[in-house]
Design goal:
The complex is a heterodimer of chains A (106) and B (153). With 106 residues, chain A is α+β, with helices and mostly antiparallel strands. Chain A has one domain. Chain A has two helices and six strands. In chain A, the strands form two sheets. Chain A has a three-stranded antiparallel sheet with strand order 4-5-6, covered by helices on one side. A two-stranded antiparallel sheet of chain A has the order 1-2. The radius of gyration of chain A is 15 Å and the shape is globular. In chain A, 26% of the residues are buried. With 153 residues, chain B is an alpha+beta fold. Chain B has a domain of 100 residues. Chain B has a four-stranded antiparallel sheet with strand order 2-3-4-5. The two termini of chain B are 22 Å apart. Chain B contains three helices and seven strands. The chains are: A alpha+beta (106), B alpha+beta (153). At the A-B interface, β1, β2, β3 and α2 of A face β1, α3 and β7 of B.
């Protein structure tokens, strides 16, 4: 089995933010409505590879994070909201989590 | 595809709170009904971020608690932090008087609202959950002040 790594990021107000995983479900208080929102889509491409569409993550990000991402997009003349293509779905999933850690602070 | 969860802090785990308090130089005192504060409500403070009365805490709860936190080595009468069940709120709400020597409480715990206590508590709760699932845990502070609790297995 491959190694697994999970992160929980805690703000100065104590608010916890993390990429949802069943192993972290215990952090969501029973009976409490916790916003869990889609951050990305991972879909197969026409040529049988996999791609991650990170555009939904923009709705989860602060204005400062979106601006920082925009500056990177301009600097490297690319659109890092679409990741891939990847040979496997697992690679696409790893890439999207890495992206969320880098740009969305989770 | 991934989903991101955003969870508000609710203090419900006293063991985790005790560990966070210990790390910050405080001790948890369980099952006590009063904590040290000025002793009477003067209603002379209008800071909407800090004054409990402006944050929806009923006046009659001031000075009452279910548990409390006190600074290790605190002198007689030194102000403390009450952990109080407030109707309509989940878990315990920290209540304290930031007047007089209460300023030391804020200074020791990161300022108004006690952010260091809240972060420490959330880190303890996160670490506990990860360990329960078989992860080894490392906690680091980021340059933006946030804590990152990383579980690996």
């Amino acid at each position: 089995m491959s190694a697994k790594e999970l992160d929980v990021v805690i703000g100065t107000d104590g608010r916890m933010r993390f990429v949802y995983d069943d192993d972290l479900a215990g952090l969501i208080p029973a009976g409490y409505t916790c916003p869990i929102r889609r951050a990305s889509h991972v879909e197969p491409t026409a040529d049988g590879k996999w791609a991650a569409d990170m555009r939904p993550a923009l709705d989860l990000m602060t204005t400062a994070q979106v601006e920082a991402l925009g500056q990177i997009q301009m600097a490297v003349a690319c659109a890092p909201l679409m990741l891939g293509p990847f040979d496997t779905r697992a690679e696409a999933l790893d890439a999207e989590v890495a992206w969320l850690k880098q740009f969305a602070g989770v | 595809m991934s989903h991101v969860a955003d969870v508000d802090l609710h203090i419900t785990d006293l063991d985790a709170l005790g560990a966070a308090a210990e790390a910050a130089g405080f001790e948890l005192v369980r099952d006590v009904k009063i904590y040290n504060w000025f002793g009477s409500f003067l209603n002379d403070w209008n800071d909407t971020d800090r004054a409990a009365i402006h944050r929806g805490i009923p006046e009659e709860l001031f000075g009452t608690c279910d548990h409390k936190l006190r600074r290790k080595g605190a002198s007689e009468g030194e102000y403390e932090i009450g952990l109080t069940r407030v109707p309509g709120r989940e878990g315990y709400t920290p209540l304290y008087d930031s007047y007089g020597n209460g300023k030391q409480l804020e200074r020791a715990l990161g300022g108004a609202g006690l952010p260091a206590l809240k972060q420490g508590y959330a880190a303890q709760v996160s670490a506990k959950q990860l360990r329960k699932q078989g992860y080894s845990v490392r906690i680091t502070q980021q340059t933006d002040g946030k804590l990152r609790v990383r579980g690996s297995r």
